[in-house]
Write a structure and sequence with these properties.
The chain is an alpha+beta fold. The chain has one domain: Heat Shock Protein 90. It contains three helices and five strands, in the order E-H-H-E-E-H-E-E. The protein starts with 8 loop residues before the first strand and ends in a 5-residue tail after the last strand.
Length: 137
């Protein structure tokens, strides 16, 4: 369900690639989406996806570069984009049951309406995911 006359809204922020970045990015995205009156379930999904994408980005980023998070809301769909300086596109893996990590992209694929990656010029890549603002009826 699209809100009538809903204008596209966008937010972005650059983050240093340190472990606390994940918490800060989650908090910022949650705050922004709540301010845009995004329904709670969509906020929760978007925050989960942001957490996973930012975690992956900081793992592949040296401390001389920043991680960029960009969120767009067109009234029907949230577009979450996380960019880092690595050109290596993410590849889902099948993590062993005892592994403590390695399931993030599978989680993103399960939670997102759509998911992908593209090269970013002049350097790096952007990993993106979409979330429906309202559940399908």
């Amino acid at each position: 369900m699209t809100q009538p006359n809903a204008a596209t809204q966008a937010w972005q922020m650059w983050f240093t690639p340190f472990p606390k970045t994940v918490y800060v990015a989650r908090r910022q995205v949650s705050r922004v989406l709540a301010g845009w009156d995004v329904p709670g379930d969509a906020v929760d999904t978007a925050v989960l996806i942001t957490s996973e994408l930012v975690t992956n980005a900081i793992r592949h980023c040296d401390t001389e570069h920043l991680v960029h998070v960009h969120v767009t809301d067109d009234g029907a769909t949230l577009l979450l984009e996380v960019s880092d300086p690595s050109r290596q596109h993410p590849r889902p893996v099948i993590a062993p049951a005892e592994a403590e990590s390695g399931r993030g992209l599978m989680l993103v694929r399960a939670a997102a309406a759509d998911f992908g990656a593209r090269d970013r010029d002049p350097v790096g890549k952007t990993v993106w995911a979409t979330v429906a603002r309202y559940p399908a009826i």
